[in-house]
Design goal:
Layout: E1 2-6, H1 12-20, E2 27-31, H2 34-43, E3 47-55, E4 59-60, H3 62-70, E5 74-82, E6 86-89, E7 98-101, H4 103-108, H5 110-116, E8 121-124, H6 128-136, E9 142-145, H7 147-152, E10 156-159, E11 168-175, E12 186-193, H8 200-210, E13 215-222, E14 230-237, H9 243-255, E15 258-269
Parallel strand pairs: 1-2, 1-3, 5-15, 7-8, 7-9
Antiparallel strand pairs: 3-4, 3-11, 5-11, 6-9, 6-10, 12-14, 12-15, 13-14
Helix pairs in contact: 8-9
The structure holds prephenic acid.
GO molecular function: prephenate dehydratase activity
Protein name: Prephenate dehydratase
EC number: 4.2.1.51
């Protein structure tokens, strides 16, 4: 089994990929960006991809949502990780003038950074483990990353966890082929657009209500077809093969101006 993830080794995406693979011999393929993970999955149906999709403090990862809209990939599993960030450096006695991390991680530590490092330069990089690597290579004074990434890069811990409380990130496992594998807790994700008429979103939401389906997320993103035009990302509890879910989705598909089933999948939660 091959699994592409946002690398290098030690990113939270790496930890999520490790949770997905049970096979010791599985090959984990580090990618520089989330776009690259999507590209690899699209090129080779034997490779799975792991991407972050939503964080409990900072919200959605828009690159992931935009790729889900435009690319033909399926969600085959959700993995939820508790995320704990540490401020790390190579040489604790050195003054810190620059701190690198992934933009999501910097935002998840916003309050701490404002309180303790207000005038320090914050450098946004592709992943938390890449920030740790930059710190090891003396390109920045400090990094925000996981304990594991700090250890991998022989960094010392200055402080942590430094993130906002209740910090969880959802990751999706992607595949070029759909795989409807049920687990203990199952979810289904769709994207739809409504016709530009009064009450059209309300009428679609009424269908979920009619079939007694629990929405776990709804988010609008620009459809990228014009100002004021949106697509709605919706996650619901339930599996697509359950009668209520499949009946509701059939009606929603008929009533929408655009509809895409992203997948029905089980959830792995720590
Ligand atoms: O930089 C990493 O370690 C990632 O896996 C990316 C990412 C994200 O994009 O949300 C994943 C989990 C954390 O929320 C912070 C960063």
């Amino acid at each position: 089994m091959k699994v592409a993830y946002l690398g290098p080794v030690g990113s939270y995406s790496y930890e999520a990929a490790k949770k997905f693979v049970k096979d010791e011999n599985a090959e984990l393929v580090p990618c520089d960006t989330i776009d690259d993970v999507f590209e690899i999955v699209l090129e080779d149906e034997k490779i799975y991809g792991v991407v972050p999709v939503e964080n409990s403090i900072e919200g959605s990862v828009s690159t992931t949502l935009d790729n889900l809209l435009k690319e033909d990939v399926y969600i085959i599993k959700e993995i939820v990780l508790k995320v704990e960030h540490y401020l790390c450096c190579k040489e604790p006695s050195k003054k810190i003038n620059s701190i690198a991390s992934h933009p999501q991680a910097l935002s998840q530590c916003h309050d701490y950074l404002r309180k303790h490092y207000k005038n320090v330069q914050l450098i946004q990089v592709n992943s938390t483990s890449y920030a740790a690597k930059m710190c090891k290579e003396d390109k920045v004074d400090a990094a925000i990353c996981s304990l594991f990434a700090a250890q991998q890069n022989s960094l010392k811990i200055i402080d942590g966890p430094i993130n906002h409380d209740n910090n969880y990130t959802r990751f999706f496992v992607l595949s070029k082929n759909p795989s409807f594998e049920r687990g203990e807790r199952n979810k289904t994700s769709i994207i739809f657009s409504t016709y530009d008429r009064p009450g059209s979103l309300y009428k679609i939401l009424a269908i979920f209500n009619l079939y007694d389906l629990n929405l776990t997320k709804i988010e609008s993103r620009p459809a990228k077809t014009g100002l004021g035009e949106y697509v709605f990302f919706v996650d619901i509890d339930g599996f697509v093969e359950e009668d209520d879910v499949s009946d509701a989705l059939k009606v929603i598909k008929r009533k929408s101006s655009f509809y895409k089933l992203l997948g029905s999948y089980s959830v792995i939660k720590e």
